[in-house]
Structure formats: C-alpha cells, structure tokens
Design goal:
Layout: H1 8-32, H2 44-57
Protein name: NADH dehydrogenase [ubiquinone] 1 alpha subcomplex subunit 1
Keywords: Electron transport, Membrane, Mitochondrion, Mitochondrion inner membrane, Respiratory chain, Transmembrane, Transmembrane helix, Transport
Organism: Aspergillus heteromorphus CBS 117.55
Length: 86
C-alpha cells in the first residue's frame, strides 16, 4: 500500500520549518560573530584574549595589528582587585 499524497504536504511543511529554523540560527550565529566561525571550548586564556580584544578594538572578535596600543588603553587595566575582609 502506498503513501497517500495528503501526507506529503504536512511532511513538507515540517521539513520547511526545520530548515528555516536551522538557517535562521546559522545566520544569527554568523552575524553575532562578525562573519567568523563560532568559538567553542573556550578556556580562561580565550576569555582573557577576548576581553583584551574588546578593550583594544571594541568588539570581541576584532583583532588589531597595530604595534602600539590606542590612547587610553594603558588606563583600561583588566586586573580585578580583591576585596579584603579584615
């Protein structure tokens, strides 16, 4: 017994919705990462470098090839101070 043609329309709609959702997720990921591949398995070093890139260029994915830091970079120290409780 064959598959009735009425079952193909809902099946096509379901496949279309999954395809549109997947493509939308890929587009949003690509847009948020400035056209670069998404980072995965980030450790502390990667997070520190992302924070440095953010302070240097203003974006987490941007990198700079300048040999000198921009003005004001010496004042944006990433070191966090501990609160000492006496």
């Amino acid at each position: 017994m064959g598959v009735p043609f009425e079952a193909l329309l809902p099946f096509g709609i379901i496949i279309g919705c999954f395809g549109a959702g997947g493509y939308g997720l890929m587009a949003v990921k690509n847009w948020t990462n400035e056209g670069k591949r998404a980072r995965w398995n980030r450790d502390v070093w990667d997070r520190v470098m992302m924070e440095r890139d953010m302070r240097l260029t203003g974006t987490a994915r941007g990198q700079s090839c300048n040999h000198e830091a921009p003005p004001g970079f010496e004042l944006s120290n990433p070191w966090k101070l501990e609160k000492r409780i006496f």
